[in-house]
Amino acid sequence: EDNATIKSIVVDIDTESVWTEMQPLTTHLTSPDFFNAREFPQAKFVSTKIEPGADIGSYQVTGNLTLLAVTKEISFPAAVINDSKGLLLKAEFTIDRNEFGMDKLADRVAKAVTIKVSVGEKTQPIATSGGFGAGPGNAAGPPNPGAQ
To answer: Considering only CA atoms, which of 30, 105, 106 is closest in space to residue 68?
Structure first.
């Protein structure tokens, strides 16, 4: 509806669903060097404040991001469209992976990591048999195709 507002955002992310176009990198990202998906199968974001931005459909979202059992407050801009097709939320922001204990390979991997969030639309190709992007236990793609 025209007067609809976003009151809160809670996102649970299966860390096994992290996906890149290079399967060896995808596998490495779920290892103990980065997301350590076996020990920490979930990452989580919980909003604490959502404020309207200057433009219609823009918001400033603040909340707590938890990675590797480390929780930090982050804030980022988000664009939201709510129409007959449903809710679409898009955001792109950068975090310092070292602040979350993801400090392995610091001499070879940048500490700044860009996170792209897209809710309400597909964000990656689904692989056909034998293609890249197939996630664990699912030949058609990762278990959570909307997560990045």
So the answer is: 30
Distance of CA 91 to the CA centre of its chain: 9
Per-residue pLDDT tens digits for 10-50: 989 899 988 888 899 889 999 999 999 999 999 999 999 99
Please classify residue 60 by burial: count the beta carbons closer than 10 Å to its beta carbon, then call 0-12 exposed, 13-18 middle and 19+ buried.
Answer: middle
DSSP 117: E
> In the block, which residue shows the tokens 């692989």?
127
Name the helix (H) or strand (E) containing 79. Answer: strand 70-83
List pLDDT tens digits, range 106-126: 888 889 988 888 888 766 554
What does the DSSP 8-state code read for residue 122? -
User: Residue 124's pLDDT is what?
Assistant: 59
